[in-house]
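Sorry, I am new here, but would you mind making up a protein's amino acid sequence and the tokens describing how it folds?
***
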Amino acid sequence: MADPVFIAVAVLTVGTAIYALESRELIYGAISLAISMLGIAGFFLLLDAPFVAMFQILVYVGAVAVLIIFTVMLVRTQALFTTKEDKKRKGAGIALMLIIMSSLGALLLTSGLNGQFGDFNNASPVDFTEIGELMLTYYAPALIIMGLTLAGSVIAALALARRENIMGEEEEEEQDQRHHERTT
């Protein structure tokens, strides 16, 4: 029998992931994606990997999902929030997903990798102090580059939102001038 906590986390993660894909409102899809990423962190906690779970929450929920929500809130064009429902495309997407998943499953079953990944009972314990030191020394440039990339994304979103706002104001002024010219 499966653990009820595992089933709850699995239902939460898969349900919010499906809602993120199927949501008509982009902001609700982004929030659902963040909740789904929290569910993945829950899986890591269930696997007794709190370091990886906290890293998942910090990087994916704390940075990526917040960046997506921030960008969506800044660049509020009506084209982003309207989706055209096409039954053929939805059916083709589901069929393609089923084909890919069954192909991958068949490949895994016929590959001979059925649980033959090694002896995990005699594995050495993980040293979290060493991981922390490596992240602050050896991997520090990569973390700085990721931080700068996220900061650049936020700045680009601000620039796009400002440019769109300026363009909208210019169009409104031109319409007001044309309307004023017609009435006089």
Summary: The mean pLDDT is 78. The helical segments are 4-22, 26-46, 50-74, 78-81, 87-110, 128-136, 140-183.
